[in-house]
Amino acid sequence: MNRTATVKRKTKETDIEVTIDLDGTGQYFVDTGIGFFDHMLSGFARHGFFDLTLKCTGDLYVDCHHTIEDCGIALGEAIKQALGDKAGIVRFGSSLLPMDETLIRCVIDLSGRPYLVFNEEFKNDMVGDFDTEMVKEFFYAVSYSSMMTLHIDELHGENSHHIIEATFKAFGRALKEAVSRDEKIKGVLSTKGSL
Hints:
Elements: E1 4-10, E2 14-21, E3 28-31, H1 35-48, E4 51-58, H2 65-83, E5 92-99, E6 102-109, E7 115-119, E8 126-127, E9 130-131, H3 134-146, E10 149-156, H4 160-179
Parallel strand pairs: 3-4, 7-10
Antiparallel strand pairs: 1-2, 2-4, 5-6, 6-10, 8-9
Helix pairs in contact: 1-4, 2-3
């Protein structure tokens, strides 16, 4: 089964095209116009072993909000489409990921029920051209458009760069586990018969 999807999203604020291959090798090309965000999405792809191409032209003359949020919506939709009927997937994934003084926990359930629990605090308002408030907005957008339950917790952390980078990498690793397939799973892993 080919688990790839391409999503195009165009509004008055952003023009986005994203392609993801859930069974890739971690190859990526990301261009959003926000250097730090590109770095974060690249880390997500590399550590999740997803092949990711994401190109966004956004209204950065306003601020970074629309670009980051809309990329989250498009990426979440691409993940959802690539998963198809979710037959055979492990469904749950988790990661504890350190980066120097930082330790992030990310836990996912590809349940079909969107929900975000987010517990992180940032000492800085900006990292480069990236507004740290947008970390939560991005993952909210991803969780709701992909229909996943997503818990993100900062267990330790001081440096905003480290916290955000560890979060994107932890998300990649947790999602890699959740989308992995197990031959023992027939259909979907649910007593309801659907996800």
